[in-house]
Amino acid sequence: MLPIRLIPVEYLFLLSIMKVFTIPNDIFSDNVTKLPELILHDYYNTHESIKGKISAGKHIFSFLQEGQKEVHFYDKSISLTSTQAVLIPAGNCLMTEKRVLHDKQYRSFLFFFSDANLIAFRKKYSFLFKVPDKNRPEDSSFFLFEQDEFIKNFIQSLQQIFQYHTTTAALSEHLLVVKFEEIMLYLCDRYGNHFLPLLASLAGSPLDLPLRQVVENNIYRNLSVEELAFLCNMSLSTFKRKFEEIYGTAPSRWFHLKKMQQAAFLLKHEKANASEIHHELGYESLSSFVQAFKKEFGKTPKVYQQSV
């Protein structure tokens, strides 16, 4: 049985000072050594507007109930109302939460889930993932969808599980696993090829997990492809072949794009300059970073920053 934790509604995010807030880790007390796979959290705040840096260690379904939410990714921004919901993949983003005139608070019901949940889902429903590679996006930032009647009923069922979990803990564990599959299957059925490519890009097969962990834990460490292959206990040719099967492009191109995307994010949202970030992105010299950035975006980092 997957470990599951239900989080009390009294917990409030401390985002006003714009520090990096790691979720769901920071929701837990310091004595929790292992996060559960599935987490429910009924989150609210009464501030007029709160903006924060979010580092999500898990994927998140955010079902907005009151107020407005704005999410800024490295390349895109979205705005949600209380009639919408969004799937936010694990990673970094900027988030703004606002009360609106007719609402007394901002409120969102959150459903966190892990790579392990995705892998289990993909293994169980493998027939859903026979999507041609050409339909898979190179990088998917989010999935935005409307709260239709099915979704509204689904949210109510999660809230009921959350409300009564103290007296039905064992039942809640079984229900949350089922509820995770329910929302996934509904979105696959309802949105088809609009949802499946994102899901496929997030959920590798169980056999892919070691390679994905090695790759995604070393994006900015400037390791060579040979060194990454060694860490995966693979020959260079096998590593390159498996890498392209998983990510849809060559290792050198994928790492380059990830570094450029992070650079664009830091320049736009953190107001950093090239001399501050080139080393942390794995470039040995400022000139090589500026040259790579200009080749990708057609502008130097300074000009790019001035234009956004």
TrEMBL record:
Record protein name field: AraC-type DNA-binding protein
Lineage: Bacteria, Pseudomonadati, Bacteroidota, Cytophagia, Cytophagales
Keyword Transcription regulation part of the UniProt annotation: yes
Keywords attached to this entry: DNA-binding, Transcription, Transcription regulation
InterPro entries per UniProt: ExsA-like_N, Homeodomain-like_sf, HTH_AraC, Tscrpt_reg_AraC-type_HTH
Keyword Zinc: no
Domain HTH araC/xylS-type: 209-307
Gene Ontology MF terms in the entry: DNA-binding transcription factor activity; sequence-specific DNA binding
Organism of provenance: Ohtaekwangia koreensis
Domain of life according to the entry: Bacteria
